[in-house]
Design a protein that fits this description.
two-stranded antiparallel ribbon; 8 helices; single chain; mainly alpha; about 280 residues
């Protein structure tokens, strides 16, 4: 019951955040200026409360079910959003993040009453927590790469100012932010893939089993590797590279959520343990 209340409060804050940002566009920036900082911080606080309350409840990191993992992804994204908001004034990033976070939480609401079944032996491995942690930090960073790329495609290469208290006088371009967040996310997902291989060897006796999710994780890594290669060789324009990063994030989401739609889904060992309550 307490988990449900935390969740619905979190969803409400995310939706109000989106609404307030749209009102800012329509009414003007002064009317809801404080909400730009207050609502993201409130969302982060609620996600943290949910995470720790669930951890205490189940005595295990709460990312065993799809619902729990969606909330953990939202938490990772919100942590990076708050960090970015601390340094940069960037309304369009706030709006893109608020919309995506609301989408995650609305989808999570459809999974709310899926409860975790018995924890398989493979998930009791010490590799489980670092594998999930680095992957979701990678997903969060690649979301920002995706968001910056979308904004670039709409607005061009904006020059962004740092906040006064950040004590950075120079501006930073959108292209630099795209490249930095892509590098950060790529580092995490490659590390996650390596940790996953060691985990697989321990659990199933082989580093790679050509599981559908493993294959799509590799496809995702190759897409982002292609970005670095094409950017380094200056083969594509920045606009084309931005579209490639949008495609890369679509592959991230499909790897995360789309495996059940594949005809080989029943062959995958990468499934969320849940039962309908």
């Amino acid at each position: 019951m307490h988990s449900d209340l935390f969740f619905y409060a979190t969803l409400a804050v995310a939706l109000v955040w989106v609404l307030s940002l749209f009102v800012l566009v329509i009414v003007g920036k002064m009317a809801f200026a404080r909400l730009k900082t207050l609502l993201p911080l409130t969302l982060l606080a609620l996600l943290l409360l949910f995470f720790f309350q669930k951890y205490i409840e189940v005595s295990y990191p709460p990312f065993r079910t799809l619902f729990e993992s969606l909330l953990f992804l939202a938490l990772c994204i919100q942590l990076l959003q708050i960090l970015t908001h601390y340094f940069l004034v960037f309304f369009w990033l706030d709006l893109t993040t608020a919309l995506f976070q609301s989408g995650i939480l609305i989808y999570a609401s459809t999974q709310l009453h899926n409860e975790a079944g018995q924890l398989p032996a493979a998930l009791q491995s010490p590799w489980f927590i670092p594998h999930v942690l680095v992957y979701f930090l990678g997903y969060a960073a690649l979301f920002f790469s995706f968001a910056f790329s979308l904004i670039y495609l709409k607005k061009g290469n904006l020059e962004l100012s740092f906040r006064e208290y950040a004590q950075m006088s120079q501006k930073i371009s959108l292209v630099r932010l795209i490249h930095f967040t892509t590098k950060l996310g790529f580092l995490f997902i490659v590390l996650g893939l390596i940790i996953g291989a060691f985990w697989a060897q321990e659990a199933w006796g082989d580093y790679w089993a050509w599981d559908p999710k493993e294959n799509w994780a590799l496809i995702t890594v190759l897409l982002y590797s292609g970005y670095f290669h094409l950017k380094g060789r200056e083969i594509l324009s920045q606009k084309q590279l931005s579209w490639l990063l949008v495609l890369g994030f679509v592959a991230v989401i499909f790897t995360y959520l789309g495996m059940k739609y594949l005809p080989t889904a029943d062959q995958s060992t990468h499934i969320y343990i849940e039962k309908r309550s």
